[in-house]
């Protein structure tokens, strides 16, 4: 079963003094890129979250966001009393030396704006609270996995249908092959009659040249390889997860055989079939960009 790299998962927790929302989004990417937006209180757990994401999602551009709606405060601002007192004593001494009377209320407003007059105290991480948040993170991670699997199922159905279309188009090729060979023979013979006198033609050599030319235009190997590649593509898709890159390589081989088929075709009907095959393959490649 194929898995998509696109997904979304969310979990909401109601804790004692806060509401926590956890969201995980993912898009397609060549490798795993993880971006986190986490409150400072939980920053020390960033690596733990990243490791779990890496194990579960494997590849993609992943964004983890944790939002806090707090009744209390994650950080508390307090007056740094010793510093304020020191500032006040120095200003008081200075005012006496200069003979300037201090107005207590304005001077306090000025002092609290001076460096280090206020200090910020962050809450300590509560492990019990963190365990609840981590459980919510696992719920969001499970949701995004389910989302990816559903998307992967839809991708697989579409890709399989297009591979089947290529196989059906390949089955249409043989009906035009005999006419194609006769057309080539006739064209060679007509050109020979137009430019070379018949009595000067060595028939044995002529037959050898026609056989050589027709062998160069033979598409039997391309048809066999293309059929095998399509079969291998289907088998690989059903083999398990994380096959997106491998399927991309197989799609390149399918494209190579289709291109060779087109270059050897020498027939308008087969060329039309080749164009339809290429159209289906391009749509498959677009879908594979999103497959894990």
TrEMBL record:
Names of the cofactor(s): a divalent metal cation
Record keyword Iron present: no
Highest taxon of the lineage: Bacteria
Signal sequence annotation: none
Domain Endoribonuclease YicC-like C-terminal: 176-291
One Pfam family of this chain: YicC-like_C
Ranges in a coiled coil: none
InterPro entries to which the protein is assigned, alphabetical: YicC-like_C, YicC-like_N, YicC/YloC-like
Keywords: Endonuclease, Hydrolase, Nuclease
Entry keyword DNA repair: no
All copies of domain Endoribonuclease YicC-like N-terminal, residue ranges: 3-156
Family: Belongs to the YicC/YloC family.
PANTHER family per record: UPF0701 PROTEIN YICC
Name of protein: YicC family protein
């Amino acid at each position: 079963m194929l898995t998509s790299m696109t997904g979304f998962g969310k979990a909401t927790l109601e804790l004692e003094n806060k509401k926590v929302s956890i969201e995980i989004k993912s898009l397609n990417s060549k490798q795993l890129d993880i971006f986190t937006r986490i409150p400072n209180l939980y920053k020390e757990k960033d690596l733990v979250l990243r490791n779990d994401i890496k194990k579960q999602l494997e590849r993609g551009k992943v964004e983890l966001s944790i939002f806090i709606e707090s009744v209390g405060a994650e950080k508390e601002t307090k007056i740094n009393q010793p510093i304020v007192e020191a500032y006040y004593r120095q200003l008081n001494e200075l005012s006496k030396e200069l003979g300037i009377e201090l107005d207590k209320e304005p001077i306090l407003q000025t002092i609290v704006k001076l460096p280090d007059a206020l200090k910020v105290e962050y809450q300590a991480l509560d492990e019990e609270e963190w365990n609840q948040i981590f459980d919510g993170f696992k719920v969001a991670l499970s949701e995004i996995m389910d989302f990816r699997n559903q998307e992967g199922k839809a991708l697989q159905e579409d890709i399989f249908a297009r591979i089947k279309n290529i196989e059906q188009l390949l089955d249409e090729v043989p009906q035009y092959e005999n006419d194609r060979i006769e057309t080539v023979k006739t064209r060679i013979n007509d050109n020979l009659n137009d430019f070379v006198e018949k009595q000067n033609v060595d028939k044995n050599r002529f037959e050898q040249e026609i056989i050589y030319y027709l062998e160069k235009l033979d598409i039997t190997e391309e048809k066999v390889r293309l059929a095998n590649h399509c079969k291998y593509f289907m088998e690989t898709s059903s083999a398990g997860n994380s096959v997106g890159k491998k399927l991309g390589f197989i799609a390149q081989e399918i494209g190579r055989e289709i291109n060779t088929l087109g270059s050897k075709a020498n027939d308008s009907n087969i060329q039309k079939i080749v164009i339809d095959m290429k159209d289906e393959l391009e749509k498959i490649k677009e879908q594979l960009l999103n497959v894990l």
